[in-house]
């Protein structure tokens, strides 16, 4: 049976219908190992706008090494719903008998995820106003979920093990960046983070957040979720690369004070300025590794798309962000020559004035 | 003979202006327009690299010489030296800043971090003299 017919049968099973017809089936994004499809399923005069996230059968999955099994991702949608975070409704999962691979069938919400449109289009002015507050509320809710709700099987590394993972990644990719090594060395010299251990979304940023004209509709793309420190998601959201050129620290469009007030009101923790900075460095380094993972996917042939090759060429973005964040803190001894740059200009990535 | 950067620029313009315009005129799928833009961006990277690779290579050599690593895969050797405890002074840091800015000038000169770095440290070509 062809893909569309198989999908119609699976959708009918999951929706509890005897049969349904599909329309508007189209692939939205994804590489060879993960696909996202949009379509409408119709049954008894009712139309269901749906999304299928699918890992097809028989696909090599080096990408899967870096992301969650779809079953665990499904459990995270349930967790987020229970915590009253805005997420699409999960209708159900594919079964082996569907012969479509691993997959989740989700509600398709209307809205916009493209950062450039959200940042510039006048119709999103109101959404931009409330963005930092809504992000703070969403992350505060996620980070205050009790551990007994957390899905099993999430990556759960303490600080020391995570630093070892970062070094192993550098070694795996043949140590291409001295700046990345300086960042790892600097992180190794920092005290263990004090923010609590929580479920981290792992990719909480513009691009993975669905907004409409009124504000945040849904938090998407949970495949990098793991157990980690609360500060990680916050530093990530505010990382320079995820500000998309915007001036404000929270995703380029929101203020930190608005974020933290809402975050704490929703159950989130205090975060020191020092730890906030640490997580920004961590996020910049993580972007570098994301670039290298994309390049590996391309060169291995697992996902030979042009986008993967292009992202692999963005390594230097992570390097400049690390240098801007740490600058002279990276020097461990006086210069052997006397031509050091002057550094009279204040930091461009502003130090946060949070909880001070 | 038409130099390589000029050829690359010509193809890049074709992709940016002709193909993208045609795609929009024919209401092509978003993905088609997106891929056309990526293709043009990749050609632009190659074009910029064709004009800057020697400067980048010189910078890498200066860094490797300063750290005292053998020729070959210089950046990897420098990374390994740093991993294994080589000290970092402001001179090395300045060289790495310059190297990163040169690379960004090729990869994505409009990246916000590149603009911030130039504001803070000055234009990359004037930032450091690597010939001392």
Plain-language structure description:
The complex is a heterodimer of chains A (356) and B (132). With 356 residues, chain A is of the alpha+beta class. Chain A has helices at residues 3-15, 70-82, 115-120, 125-143, 159-172, 178-188, 230-237, 256-265, 273-299, 306-312, 315-326; strands at residues 21-29, 35-43, 46-55, 90-93, 102-107, 197-200, 209-212, 215-219, 226-229. In chain A, the strands form 3 sheets. Chain A has a 5-stranded antiparallel beta sheet. A two-stranded antiparallel sheet of chain A has the order 6-9. The longest helix of chain A has 27 residues, at 273-299. The N and C termini of chain A lie far apart (62 Å). Residues 337-356 of chain A have low confidence and may be disordered. With 132 residues, chain B is mainly alpha-helical. The longest helix of chain B has 38 residues, at 30-67. Chain B is elongated, with a radius of gyration of 19 Å. The chains are: A alpha+beta (356), B mainly alpha (132).
Comma- or semicolon-separated keywords:
heterodimer, A: 356 residues, alpha+beta, two-stranded antiparallel sheet, 11 helices, 9 strands, globular, disordered C terminus, B: mainly alpha
Q: In short, what is this structure?
A:
The complex is a heterodimer of chains A (356) and B (132). By secondary structure, chain A is α+β, with helices and mostly antiparallel strands.
Q: How would the blueprint of this fold be written?
A:
The complex is a heterodimer of chains A (356) and B (132).
Chain A lengths: L2 H13 L5 E9 L5 E9 L2 E10 L14 H13 L7 E4 L8 E6 L7 H6 L4 H19 L15 H14 L5 H11 L8 E4 L8 E4 L2 E5 L6 E4 H8 L18 H10 L7 H27 L6 H7 L2 H12 L30
Antiparallel strand pairs in A: 1-2, 2-3, 3-5, 4-5, 6-9, 7-8
Helix pairs in contact in A: 4-8, 5-6, 6-9, 7-9, 9-10, 9-11
Chain B lengths: L3 H22 L4 H38 L6 H10 L6 H18 L4 H10 L2 H4 L5
Helix pairs in contact in B: 1-2, 2-3, 2-4
């Amino acid at each position: 049976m062809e893909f569309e017919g198989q999908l119609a049968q699976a959708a009918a099973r999951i929706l509890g219908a005897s049969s349904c017809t599909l329309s508007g089936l189209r692939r939205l994004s994804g590489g060879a190992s993960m696909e996202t499809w949009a379509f409408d399923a119709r049954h008894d005069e009712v139309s269901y706008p749906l999304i299928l996230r699918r890992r097809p059968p028989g696909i090599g999955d080096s990408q899967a090494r870096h992301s969650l099994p779809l079953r665990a991702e499904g459990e995270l949608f349930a967790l987020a719903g229970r915590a009253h975070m805005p997420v699409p409704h999960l209708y159900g999962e594919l079964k082996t008998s569907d012969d479509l691979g691993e997959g989740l069938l989700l509600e398709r919400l209307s809205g916009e995820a493209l950062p450039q449109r959200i940042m510039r289009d006048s119709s999103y002015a109101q959404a931009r106003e409330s963005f930092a507050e809504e992000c703070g509320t969403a992350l505060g809710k996620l980070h205050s979920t009790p551990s007994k709700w957390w899905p099993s099987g999430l990556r759960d590394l303490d600080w020391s093990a995570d630093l070892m993972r970062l070094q192993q990644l550098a070694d795996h990719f043949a140590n291409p960046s001295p700046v990345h090594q300086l960042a790892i060395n600097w992180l190794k010299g920092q005290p263990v983070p004090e923010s609590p251990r929580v479920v981290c979304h792992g990719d909480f940023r513009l691009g993975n957040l669905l907004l409409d004209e009124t504000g945040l509709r849904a938090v998407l793309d949970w495949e990098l979720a793991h157990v980690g420190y609360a500060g990680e998601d916050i530093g990530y959201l505010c990382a320079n690369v995820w500000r998309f050129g915007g001036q404000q620290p929270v995703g380029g469009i929101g203020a930190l004070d608005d974020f933290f007030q809402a975050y704490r009101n929703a159950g989130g923790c205090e975060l020191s300025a020092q730890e906030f900075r640490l997580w920004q460095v961590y996020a910049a380094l993580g972007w570098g590794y994301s670039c290298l993972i994309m390049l590996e996917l391309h060169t291995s042939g697992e996902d030979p798309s042009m986008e993967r090759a292009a992202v692999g060429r963005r390594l230097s973005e992570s390097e400049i962000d690390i240098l801007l964040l740490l600058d002279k803190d990276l020097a461990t001894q006086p210069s052997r020559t006397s031509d050091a740059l002057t550094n009279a200009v204040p930091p461009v990535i502003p130090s946060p004035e949070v909880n001070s | 003979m038409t130099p390589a950067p000029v050829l690359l620029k010509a193809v890049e313009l074709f992709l940016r202006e002709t193909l993208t315009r045609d795609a929009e005129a024919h209401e092509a799928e978003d993905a088609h327009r997106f891929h056309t833009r990526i293709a043009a961006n990749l050609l632009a990277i190659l074009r910029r690299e064709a004009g800057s690779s020697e400067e980048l290579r010189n910078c890498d050599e200066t860094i490797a010489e300063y750290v005292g690593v053998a020729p070959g895969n210089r950046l990897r050797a420098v990374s390994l030296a740093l991993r294994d405890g080589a000290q970092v002074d402001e001179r090395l840091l300045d060289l790495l800043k310059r190297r990163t800015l040169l690379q960004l000038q090729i990869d994505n000169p409009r990246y916000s971090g590149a603009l911030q770095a130039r504001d803070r440290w000055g234009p990359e070509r004037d930032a450091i003299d690597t010939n001392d």
